[in-house]
Amino acid sequence: MGEVSDDNSNLSFLKRIATSDVPLLKEYGVNGVVVALLLAVVTPVLLSMMFGKKTKQRAVRANVGGEEGFAMRNSRFSSLVEVPWEGATTMSALFEMASKKYSRRRCLGTRKLIKREFVESSDGRKFEKLHLGEYEWDTYAEAFNRACNFASGLVKMGHDLDSHAAIFSDTRAEWIIAAQGCFRQNLTVVTIYASLGEDALVHSLNETQVSTLICDSKQLKKIPAISSKLQSLRHIIYIEDEPVEAETLNQVKHLTTLSFTEVEELGKTSSVDARLPSSSDTAVIMYTSGSTGLPKGVMITHGNMVATTAAVMTIVPKLGMNDVYLAYLPLAHVFELAGETVMLASGTAIGYGSTLTMTDTSNKIKKGTKGDVSVLNPTLIISVPAILDRIRDAVFKKVGEKGGLTKKLFDFAYKRNLASIEGSWFGSWAPERMIWDTIIYKPIRAMLGGRVRFVLCGGAPLSGDTQRFMNICLGVPVGQGYGLTETCAGAAFTEWDDTSVGRVGPPLPCCYVKLVSWEEGGYKISDYPMPRGEVVVGGHSITKGYFSNEAKTNEVYKVDERGIRWFYTGDIGQFHPDGCLEIIDRKKDIVKLQHGEYVSLGKVESALATSSYVESIMVYADPFHNYCVALVVPVRQALEKWAQNSGINCEGFEELCQNGQAVKEVQQSLSKAAKAARLERFEVPAKIELLPEPWTPESGLVTAALKLKREQIKAKFKDDLDKLYH
């Protein structure tokens, strides 16, 4: 039976485990552990002979109108889901009803700031460190009252009800309070990424004619420099998350400027009747992250938001009042806003954090202070793939550094659990997994608080390796979602009991997903064994279009003869036999080389990103050449460690990135990754350049979801790309 046989090498390995310093195993002795683990190995063989896995049909063909294609709907519902419960047709109605239903439950939590200090590094740079305390909570009833007060205060301070209000802030409780306040007066909220550059910020505020800007203290500092360019801005409301200098306030004294607390107090002492919206009213104009130039404002209705909410509530198992959700992704991203709306509708406690304070060792956490996850102990988190990739890499790196028996034990347990998840006959079973969970995985789970039971992932493709890591080391299902701002995040979502990787699940119950043949790219719905084509989404989650951009709206939105609204995503997908969707390509990422070969840039980047040296990578293909090239931001620690072991001395990281041997080492690593992914020779970058500075949302080179801004990177590194082709 191969690995499960009674051979000397396996017995020797198990005995070494039993005689190690692991207390739980040592307690039972050598013979007890050997017998227990051998039984654990043999038992799954017998069980798998008795019970086989059955394929579950997750989506069925849908009879829809519009362009000819292969359409599917969720198999669990005979018609599309539109509301989470009767009467909850708008964001304001949903929040009000939830606040009455869960009135005394914890709703919005923020950590108490005990002390803020700055430390200086050896090179003279200053870093902010925060000493944070416990979470302080508003109940659902208190959060609703704050939203009502804010709504009244907004009107009383002079906001024109026919104009828009914008929120320009990091994710925090006040963001949701402000948004819900606006909804109660049927005001459209313009959402703006906190990382947005000046030009894009001015464009967004002017295009939507924003008269009131709600921002945090950090963003307030950006306003004086651009205030002369803002045509319609009349009022500023700032959140007092850190001290605001008098000079900053003086520079915007031509605008009515009040603190968030002052607006709440103004509304509390002088309330105004609500002016509630309808489901077809625009709740949000959400600016996309601008991966291809200036951002576009997507008009999302109240009906769109509650339809997505209703659909996702059917996906997350046992979602409810006992759950605790960690909120840290940008609320200006539809993924996070939809996620928090789902939590509010479910009576879940939402605790706010940030990527810089999340763990005990995060950059902004003062030594000795606990990170957000350690204090909150969440049961649910939403993440983008890049963050999960970093968690995986950190764990594997730590295990690799320990080496010896620790690494062998980890590798053995990982292999056994992987086989179990993937349905292999030699996989582990429950009693054995309990042993591994106790001695190996418990410390890893503690990295996220120790209680996470479900992870929602979206914003970009999640690698199969990372999904398996989460399944094994965190012991949780990963629901990988697929959607766009234009579909209000709602398109497809993997279900909790689907252990496959690389897919994004069946259509959400609020929409249809249709594949339309793209003849030019060679993707057709008649393809065998799976239909392929451009992904088109239709139903209740499809938004109204782009603000002040009718031409672009008409280009990608269509309404069929039955009145169903469809959005053409530009992504290429295929349907598996069980109805699950897999995204396999993107129209804009396909480049035809000089000799006629097609290179899918996104596919190649995903494959090469598995190299341990790659932090970020952009592949570039010039159609006038027969090969592609790549810009690589290397993992600093990994490359410096290689240099140290290789005896290479450089003045700094920038010099190391220019070192020929370092470039050759990274290129060889990329070639190995390409070979493992079975890329064609022309898909492997013939030349690369290493760049020392990381690509961040603040640098304008990646979106808030850490997706590449391809055009911006090409423009910034034009000379570098030209050199690679000469």
UniProtKB/TrEMBL annotation:
Recorded catalytic activity of this chain's protein: a long-chain fatty acid + ATP + CoA = a long-chain fatty acyl-CoA + AMP + diphosphate; (E)-4-coumarate + ATP + CoA = (E)-4-coumaroyl-CoA + AMP + diphosphate; (E)-4-coumarate + ATP + H(+) = (E)-4-coumaroyl-AMP + diphosphate; (E)-4-coumaroyl-AMP + CoA = (E)-4-coumaroyl-CoA + AMP + H(+)
Listed InterPro entries: AMP-bd_C_sf, AMP-binding_CS, AMP-dep_synth/lig_dom, ANL_N_sf
Species annotation: Zea mays (Maize)
Keywords, sorted A to Z: Membrane, Transmembrane, Transmembrane helix
Residues passing through the membrane, by range: 28-51
Entry protein name: 4-coumarate--CoA ligase
Pfam families (UniProt xref): AMP-binding
MF-aspect GO terms: 4-coumarate-CoA ligase activity; long-chain fatty acid-CoA ligase activity; trans-cinnamate-CoA ligase activity
Cofactor dependence: Mg(2+)
Enzyme Commission number(s) of this protein: 6.2.1.12
Gene Ontology annotations of biological process type: phenylpropanoid metabolic process
